[in-house]
Batch of 3 targets.
Target 1
Amino acid sequence: MSVFRNNWSTISRWAAMALVALLILFFPVPQTSVTPVERTFRVQASQFAYNPAVLSVNPGDRVTIELLATDVVHGLAIDGYDVETISDPGQTARLSFTADRQGTFRFRCSVTCGNMHPFMIGKFQVGRNDLFWRGVLLTGLALFAAIRGSRK
């Protein structure tokens, strides 16, 4: 009878962990309403990178990107948005638009600037990165289960 109780205890623990994992994966996260603001980013472009390479905004924000090419002519075009600008060396080009699409979008150089041109990309994030935080929580749950299981 104690073997049955021990197995039942193990099964119920794993079922509880599976339930928590499903809650982490599928529980809807409430959307917080954030008042749109003006966001300005100064992005330096040099062969073959953007600095900063990741731009994060909230949905509805009015975004201005000031692109400064430091060596040769560079461009910046955001996939999913119909926006583009080109900057001559030492000159600042400005690009303004409203971040009206939520998600993660690549931005890339739109002017051939050398051999590594295809790899000159960055990331434009609109909204929270819920997938990342859900992954962190699932990893924590897996570590908890591994530590708890190693004690027995």
Target 2
Amino acid sequence: MQSFTLVIYASPQSPSSMTALNFARALLASGHSLYRLFFYQDGVYNACSFQVPPQDEIDLPAAWQALVQEHEIDAVVCVASALKRGIVDTAEAERYELAAANLREGFVISGLGQLIDATLNSDRTLNFLP
């Protein structure tokens, strides 16, 4: 079996984000492992807890969170992309004196070094663009 890293550039509104989620589920169901999920650029919106989709749509951020927590997957959100888009964890909220944190539980904010590490330690790295 192989180890994969998925880099998600697509927001929850993009079909590419759903494709990435379905691909991740299929990998795990086939016995492969996910070394890391890396959310980059607009993909960081998948880790935002302040999104409320319409009732007739899939709550993609919640679905990502469920997958991450169920399979204990390392889910990294790019710090530069997150800050630029207003997504912060508790430490960043305190650092910038913001009223609240909005990063979903199970995700961590970190830098591009985590993407380099994942690329070096995975058999395959796949990018999901919008």
Target 3
Amino acid sequence: MRFEPDPQDPETLMIVDPGCQQLVGYETRIDATGACTVSLDVGPQHLNRHGILHGGMVATVLDVVCGNTASRYFDPEGHAALVTVALNLSYIAAMGPGLITATARATGGGKSTAHVMGELRDEEGRLLATATGIFRRITKR
């Protein structure tokens, strides 16, 4: 994982992750205030057999935004290594292709555990899903 300046906004950093991010296609940004957003241009490859956004894609995007928010809870630079302990999702509305954006905020925690709430919205701001997550800080091996 590395941080690069966002070409559209020099005040914002983009997180470049060579793994899942490249496969799924989401973009992760950290703004000047430290807030994280994850966006995904939903295409046919992200839909289920009914033509709506697959629940696994929803879970992935919300896990990423909540995890990056938890990382910043532990370390303002966002370099804290962590794992997801629990991620609870509520699916509220369905959608097909289009842009989705996830945001999150830390709601509490301690030295090694952070609690985070996330939301996923479409281009019009319609709430699609919510998440609550627990993330544990780990030591890299």
